[in-house]
Amino acid sequence: MFHRTEARVNAYLAQLSTSGWRALSELRSSGQIHGVGAGINELGMIPRFLDAVDLDFFLVALSYNLLDLTSLDEEFPLCRERNVGVVAGAVYASGILATGPVKGALYNYAPASEEILEKTRRMEAVCQRHNTPLAAAALQFPLAHPLVATIIPGAIAPEQVEENIQRFRHPVPAQLWSDLKAEGLLPQSAPTP
């Protein structure tokens, strides 16, 4: 299965780098569009796209949030070298950072493992010591990275949009980020607000 999927990805990238990319590049050059990006939810795809085409940004889903920072050291440096921006998607890690470590919480679109539930509990405890909802910290965290231009928190109902606005506006003390790092819940290298 992996080999067939890999072959399909290679075929799509080859097609993009010829006819598809030429059309997008012409639209960008003429000013009809202002940027071209790609949505990524799998580690290793950013370098492949950067080798194939000249993108302006990546929508990075699931690999840059409070629970998963794999893009931080492995792929963001490549974006920085090429002056490519990032839109952070799935800032709530597909649910658990919005709901907290409750029964049935989702992480990466599947039931959260006990390890993820425990890490989330520990993060939530730090947030509670600072009177900050975990969801507010999760929403604001990615925006501290200089490559991240915006986030997509996701919402399926109007009240969730309002909740996201409140979370965005909630003051998060600098000590909260220091405590997360001190407790080993965030790497020291992670940019924080």
Give the SSE order as H and E letters. Answer: HEHEHHEHEEHHEHH
Which range best describes the helical content: under 10%, 10-25%, 25-40%, 40-55%, 55-70% or over 70%? Answer: 40-55%
CATH secondary-structure class of the largest domain: Alpha Beta
SSE class: alpha/beta
* Domains, number: 2
Q: Which architecture of the largest domain would the CATH scheme give at its second level?
A: Alpha-Beta Barrel
| Neighbour order of strands in the largest sheet | 1-2-3-6
Report on this model:
There is one protein chain. The protein has 193 residues and is of the alpha/beta class. The protein has two domains: 34 residues; 148 residues, NADP-dependent oxidoreductase domain (TIM Barrel), CATH 3.20.20.100. It contains nine helices and six strands; from the N terminus they run αβαβααβαββααβαα. Strands 1-2-3-6 form a four-stranded parallel β-sheet. It has a two-stranded antiparallel ribbon with strand order 4-5. The N and C termini lie far apart (42 Å).
